[in-house]
Amino acid sequence: MKKILLLLAGVLCMLLGLFFAIVPGPSLIFFMAGLLCFSFDYPKARHYLRLCQKALTKSCRYLDKKLAR
Asked: Fewest C-beta in 10 Å: which of 35, 45, 48, 60?
């Protein structure tokens, strides 16, 4: 039952992420939440979640440096 709920939540978050990629909104947050739900059962999703986290951290550091000037 728990696995099914996690998968449904992951699918819902991914669909919302796709919707907000077309319409202005927080698409990245929903994509990462979907990957988080999928990462409990699928190691490949865990890998993609780590890649997204690293890319987001790198881009935030870059923006912090640019805004600090």
From this structure: 60
